[in-house]
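## retry 2 of 3
previous attempt timed out at serialization; input unchanged, resubmitting
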Amino acid sequence: MAVRVSIFHQTKYEYDRPVFLSPHLFRLKPAAHSRTPIEAYSLIIKPDTHIIHWQQDPFGNFVARVDFQEPMREMLIEVEIIAHMVPLNPFDFFLDAYAEYFPFTYEAQLKKDLGPYLEVSLPGPQMEQLLQRLDQSKRGTVDFLIMLNQLIYQNISYTVRLQPGVQTSEESLMQALGSCRDSAWLLVQIMRHLGLAARFVSGYSVQLIAENLLPTRSFGLEQDVVALHAWAEVFIPGAGWIGLDATSGLLAGEGHIPLACTANPDSAAPITGTTGISETSFTYINKVKRI
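## retry succeeded, writing output
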């Protein structure tokens, strides 16, 4: 059963004095390759004294560049999306014959094309130990990916972390704790160390309560919820990019709406830009409603 939903996301920055803002980049528009159909979208930024230019980054993500024309005491960003939540089978794909079993090697041209998604960070002791412990004997590629996703889900406890940026893989492994973006980046790095092209994804996670029979993995939720989220994608020949959500241990489904898919988390931040010196308060609202 398909359901249409309205997503509302508001972010407000309040400053203790008038400040000038540098040009800001907003990555808050669903990516063109979103598997969940997007029927309508709007972005409102206040104050109105700004110029907005839409562009695409090197990865094909939609980016709004906003140039502000005067100082301000408050910046308000509102996103509204109408999405058609059609049930998706996350296993609805085929693999090329040579990629059906892990380990495999990408064909030469494909490996060259995937270069940015194969770059690895220098592994620390924790990462080296994890890679040494992994059973890398030949097995079905899909089974291997599920095992990796479950490995992070079972060993990295989830926490809400408001500090900007992403922890290193070593920090996440040492603390056994991380936000969704920390777990996603850890999974990306593990897959790259194993020779699998992987990228970081920032987007919305929509979870609907089970009464509508959608396979949205509601985990006992008492109401429908939406939040900014992060997960990983891995490129497997024949299937293309496959989404892996290490926070839930599941494959990405219709509730995962990508905003930015990049080789590095720094390039996927929903909002980037600098502000004049001030004390800043930050509030946000996320709502989802069935329509």
